[in-house]
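C-alpha cells please, single chain.
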Amino acid sequence: MNLQQWATLHIRRFQFAIIILTALVGLLLVACGARAEALSLVEATPVPSKIEQITVRRLGGDGEYAGDEAENDEPTLPPVDPLQVEGDIVSAGSSTVYPLIEAVATQFESEGYRGRITIDSIGSGAGFERFCVAGETDLSTASRPINSSEVESCRRLGREPIEFRVGTDALAIAVNRNNDFVDNVSLEEVALLFSTARTWSDVRPQWPDERILRYIPGTDSGTYDYFVEVIFDENQVAILNAANLEQSEDDNVLVQGVLGSPYAVTFFGYAYYQENATQLRALSIGDVEPSADAVERGDYALSRPLYIYSTADIMQQKPQVAAFVNYFLSRVDDVVADVGYFPASREAMEDARLKWVEAMEQ
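Here you go.
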C-alpha cells in the first residue's frame, strides 16, 4: 500500500467515526429531552393525600360514584383485625346509643379483641361531663350534638372533640296496650300530655277523666333534651312542673312504669319500644307512625341523629381506640337495624369515615 492509499483509508475511517459519534450524540439528546419531559409531567401532577386516594378511587371522571357493586360506592377504611388489638377502651354517655355501641363491642370481642371495653349508660350530658370535664373516657356517646359550652370544656382539657354520626333514632310516645282510647296525637297534644293537662280528658274531652301518669327520662338524657327542644322549644319549665311525674335515666324503669297502668304515658328511643312492643303501643304523631320509611322521608316528627365522639390525640395515643372507632364505622350498618334504629345517611357515614382518616393523618 502506497502513501496515498494509506491516507485515503484513514480519512474514510475518520469520517465514519465522526458519523457514528454524531448519531450517538443525537440519540443521547433525544433521550435527555424525553426524560426531562417525563420529569416535568411527574412534577406537574399532584400526588393525592390519603383522604383523596380514598375518595378519588371511588369516583368516575364525571364526579359520580363508580364501582361494580353498591357497597363499593362509599370510602373504605383500612381493615381492622380485632385479634391484633390490645388495650382497654372506656366509653360513657347516652342510654339511647348504649344498645348500639354494646352490639358493635360484642361483635368486636367475638372476633378476638383482647382488651376490655367499659360502656356506661349515664345520659348524653353526663357522658360529655366525663369526657370534657373529668377527661376520664376515650369515647362519649350521645343522642344529641355536643353543645358549645361542652366543646369549650373539652378544649380546656386540650381535647378537640370529633363528631362521628353513626345512626338515626326515632322517639316513641308509648302507652300501655290496655289503653284502648288513643292511637294518634298531634304535637300540641303531646305537649299537653307532658305538661299542664292533669287528666286525659283535658287533652281531648272524649278521653277518660283519669289522671295522666307521666314517666320521662332524666334531665341528663339526650332523649330528654331532644324532646324538650322539639316539643317545648327548649323551655323545660312546663314539663318539670307537670303533675304525677317520675323521671329515670334507666329506660327500663320507664317501661315498667307504663306497664303498671293504662293511663300512663312515656317517651324513649324507638329501640326500647321495639323490645317491649308486645306490651306497649307507640302512638302515631300527626297520623304518621314511627318507621324506617317515615324517618328516612323526614315525615315522622320525632327522629334524631346518634353520635359517638373522640379526639385525634386519643386515637393516635391509644391505637385500640382508633381501631374500635374504625371498626364501629365499618360495621355499624350491619347491626343498627337489629338493635332497633335506622342507618345514618350515606353522606353522613362517608363524612364520619373521612373524619377518621383526617384525625389519623394529623
